[in-house]
Amino acid sequence: MTTPKRAQWETLFKDFPAQKQYKIFNEGYNICYNRSYCDDLSIPDPKKRGEIINLCKKIACKYINLPDIVRSERKYSDRCSYFIHWAQDVIRKHFKVDLASNYYYHFIFKLIDVAREISWEDLKSPPCQRLFDSDFKHWEVEKDIHDYFKNVDTLSKKIDTDVDKRNSYLEYLTYIKRLYENNYRECCDPYDISYSNCPNYFVCNPNFHPNELIAKINPDTQVRRVTVKLDQEEAPHYKENQLDTILVIKVRIVQLVRHTIINRIHVKLQKDLALK
């Protein structure tokens, strides 16, 4: 959703780290020679098929060149998070009207297969984790939170130097604070702030809470970091090794549920195509 505020923020942050990185994605590495990725997409409508194949190839080409595009990040997972949020933004804008169509699901499944193939054959690395497996309607929120964390150090410095922009920064931080607190409980474990259930977009370290920057703009404002209240029965005193086991089990359950749902949808779509 494009709003006047969002357009204003795009201008305000155009020279920040995340925006600079997306600019490289948008402007470079558009041609991949001798690649047949995406050509076998099963879409009956010739016009739609051409559009979606071109979109698939565009995203695949960026993925092939990921190490060269995202040079600012050393960790593979951070490179992946940039790719995922750039790609999801492109997909979201393309399918914003046509989401209900089966074309969207065919496209996503194909793109995941292409990414896996590229990972093993071109990048010689495991595929990026959790590719396109979250709710389409939540992608914009995830990208906004991700970009906040990537920009937080720069934003902290800008608040000190760009006095005339502090009101704009405050409006933005108020928006981010709402997203942060709405997603904290799902993404963060109160027993281990170093762990995130949402590694592609959420950093659970409380030092990065938007309140920390809001307090720099309004020193007299009382701000509190987010807290998660647990009932007595929800807060047992686990030993460290027990907690590690619980976290692993929780992650495995979430992954299993996601993959089961995706596989069922995939099978249904294949049956629907066979009947046409």
Q: Major sheet: size, sense and barrel closure?
A: 2 strands, antiparallel
Please report the total strand number as a whole number.
2
Secondary structure category: mainly alpha
Radius of gyration from CA coordinates:
21 Å
Mean residue pLDDT: 81
Question: How would you summarize this macromolecular structure in one to three sentences?
Answer:
The chain has 276 residues and is mainly α. 63% of the residues lie in helices and 3% in strands.
Written overview of the protein:
This protein is mainly α. The chain folds into three domains: about 30-135; about 140-235, no CATH class; about 235-275. It has ten helices and two strands, in the order ααααααααββαα. A two-stranded antiparallel ribbon has the order 1-2. A hairpin with a 2-residue loop joins β1 (about 190) and β2 (about 190-195). α5 (about 75-95) packs across α7 (about 140-160) and α7 (about 140-160) crosses α8. The model is unreliable at about 225-250 (pLDDT under 50).
Index terms:
276 residues, mainly alpha, two-stranded antiparallel ribbon, 10 helices, elongated, Variable surface protein Vir12, Plasmodium_Vir
Layout of helices and strands:
Elements: H1 4-12, H2 17-27, H3 46-64, H4 66-69, H5 76-94, H6 102-123, H7 139-161, H8 166-187, E1 188-189, E2 192-196, H9 210-217, H10 240-275
Antiparallel strand pairs: 1-2
Helix pairs in contact: 3-6, 5-7, 7-8, 8-9
